[in-house]
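Section 3.1: Structural characterization of target chains.
Under the original work plan, the team committed to producing a structural model for every single-chain target entering the pipeline before any wet-lab resources were allocated. The record below documents one such target. The sequence was received from the expression subgroup and is listed exactly as submitted; it comprises 290 residues.
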Amino acid sequence: MRIGIDARFYGPEKQKGLGRYVQELVRGLEEIQTDDQFVIFLRRENWNDYNPQNKKFIKVPADYRWYTFAEQIFFPFLIWKEKIDLMHFPHFNVPVFCPVDFVVTIHDLLLNHYPTRRASTLGPLMYWIKNRGYHLTIKRAIKKARKIIAISEYTKQDILNTFSIRDEQEELINKIKVIYEGVSIAKEEANFDVLQKYGIAKPYLLYVGNAYPHKNLERLISAFKKLNGLQLVLVGQLDYFYRRLQGGDKIIFTDFVSDQDLSGLYQEASLYVFPSLYEGFGLPPLEAMA
């Protein structure tokens, strides 16, 4: 069988869980003995981040930005051209006209529960269009998928509560398989010079992830300002959402850090904080425990 994997999110850049999920998925599959062939679809920006270690794996450029018309129009043709038998989409953004059977991973239903323009830089009209597109895309992906991977029992129940129709509930239950996420950060050799590198003084509180509104960092920072004798270290790429939080004494914004630096930051922290209002799972707390 010729299996395609949409790896356009591949890589731990920006300290986002989806990129790491795709990276570890591909890395783990390479270690399995199989007669299947795997086609790894990548964008230009992460093309050099992945170099196949198994002769049954090849990479193919699919430089279509996610959540765009290009993704919907051109990606299906590329899948057909590569003679794929089965696709795995590790996120809900499955092209509506996908020409082959597919498996989809659903991490959460965030946009069903927290549809807010504060999580987007789009204007009102484009945000409304994209939001409608999201609802149509995820509903169709769930209906048409051969199998759905949910990353937690909570996400499975969330899917069932949100999308199940009475006459089709049993079919949807049988279609969903819970496969928990794992952790690899503990394997990295920690860099214990990382505190000096970023100007961090112990003791400190640590947060790792993005700064979207549902992550609740504004409230975390507000609570932190009432504490004395601590620093707060926020790890994540300094994008629009992080920059609007910048300011304040004893708060350090590291930007993106390597896995070695991240392992050191986890191990030297006094406390890991995870103030999110909603998650399907949440990899950073698992990394922190590891």
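DSSP finds eleven helices and eleven strands in the chain.
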